[in-house]
């Protein structure tokens, strides 16, 4: 008689260790939240939800992209973050600075940010609140949740509706041709990094002279 355990898929010890580490990190972060008057805007204050294809940028990348967005927007500029919550959180860490920012995001946990949060589903790219006027943002930074042409094309409709002209797109290197086709953006030298390594090479694309080269 065969051993009953044979048909139970076993996690490799490596996967198991990674999972344990992830849960431990999560517990530690939860603990930190309660012990320090937790900064609700800091990266990681809302956990990644992999089912929503969310992957946060590393702190360094988020800072770099936030800085670029502020420069691109100019004094008193308006910035829209489309599916790029970690950049939004970095922008919010800069207290009392001279720009305003909105976050368009499918994940309703971000509604803790109040009026700046706009529920957004890329399947309905122009289903936006009436007070979100066309071409009312100096720069739009977007990170479509999926590496598919359909997702990029629909997100592109939103970006084109919102922006006065400047676009900063973050997506896979494999999307270079589609990014040029749908948004007229070109790849920069800057390589964005994520807090967890992704299998797909990630790049930034812009349609203006940016500080990312």
Automatic annotation (TrEMBL):
GO terms for cellular component: cytoplasm. Keywords: Cytoplasm, Methyltransferase, Transferase. One of its GO terms (molecular function) is nucleic acid binding. It catalyses: L-lysyl-[protein] + 3 S-adenosyl-L-methionine = N(6),N(6),N(6)-trimethyl-L-lysyl-[protein] + 3 S-adenosyl-L-homocysteine + 3 H(+). It is found in: Cytoplasm. It comes from the Eukaryota. GO terms for biological process: methylation. PANTHER family: EEF1A LYSINE METHYLTRANSFERASE 1. This is EFMT1 methyltransferase. It comes from Quiscalus mexicanus (Great-tailed grackle).
């Amino acid at each position: 008689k065969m051993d009953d355990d044979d048909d139970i898929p076993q996690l490799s010890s490596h996967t198991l260790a990674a999972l344990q580490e992830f849960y431990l990190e999560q517990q530690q972060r939860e603990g930190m939240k309660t012990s320090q008057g937790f900064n609700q805007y800091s990266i990681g204050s809302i956990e990644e939800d992999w089912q929503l294809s969310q992957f946060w940028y590393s702190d360094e990348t988020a800072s770099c992209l936030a800085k670029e967005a502020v420069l691109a927007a100019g004094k008193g500029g308006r910035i829209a973050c489309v599916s790029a919550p970690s950049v939004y959180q970095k922008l919010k860490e800069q207290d009392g600075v001279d720009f305003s920012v909105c976050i368009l995001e499918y994940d309703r946990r971000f509604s803790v940010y109040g009026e700046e949060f706009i529920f957004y589903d890329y399947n309905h790219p122009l289903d936006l609140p009436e007070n979100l006027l066309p071409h009312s943002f100096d720069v739009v930074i977007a990170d479509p949740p999926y590496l598919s042409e359909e997702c990029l094309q629909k997100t592109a409709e939103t970006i084109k509706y919102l922006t006065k002209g400047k676009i900063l797109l973050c997506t896979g290197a494999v999307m270079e041709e589609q990014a040029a086709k749908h948004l007229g953006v070109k790849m920069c030298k800057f390589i964005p990094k994520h807090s967890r390594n992704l299998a797909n090479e990630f790049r930034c694309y812009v349609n203006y002279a940016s500080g990312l080269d």
